[in-house]
Known about the structure:
The protein has helices spanning 2-34, 47-54, 85-88, 137-148, and strands spanning 43-46, 65-73, 76-84, 105-117, 120-130, 133-134, 158-162, 167-173, 176-181. It is an alpha+beta fold. The chain has one domain (2-181). The longest helix is centred in the first third of the chain and has 33 residues, at 2-34.
Amino acid sequence: MLLSCLTFAVAGESNSHDLASMERKLNHIEANGRSPHPDATPTVFTEPEVNAYLGSDNVRLPAGVQSVKLEGEAGIITGKSRVDFDRIREGSHSSNPLLSVFSGVHDVVVVAHAHGAGGIGYVQVDSVSIDNIEVPRFVLQLFVDKFLKPKYPELGLDSQFKLPNHIDTATVGHRELTVTQK
């Protein structure tokens, strides 16, 4: 019992340290982005920092999305979450039997290639699995078009978006994200 309490206390201290570090780095990115000539020194976000931030009260996840954790490898992000699809689908109905897989509460894993270049972010979803069963891409596209696009028009299986705060590049590495501003 004492060991589990100590482990929890140490994990909590590490988590708060990672959260504080992430917040400092985000504040630096924002302040640097307001400069007419941003400092191009790279800023490195570690995986524990990003996950501490995602698990904090600083991030409001969409209704139905819970406990997001990200893992990074060279150019690839793996996101793991618990999703209540009924909450995501609230207000929308479909008689398409292919979309029935998107109901109830499930563990979801999304694997995507991601990077930023020239001030543009690029995300290409490679695969999505629900409770360890991969969802065919055409079924994912149906779900995105029917339930996500109406609420989040910028989302898709292949997305491009302008990076904020004069971020020029974003590179996913092993357990880290490196951004440069220009």
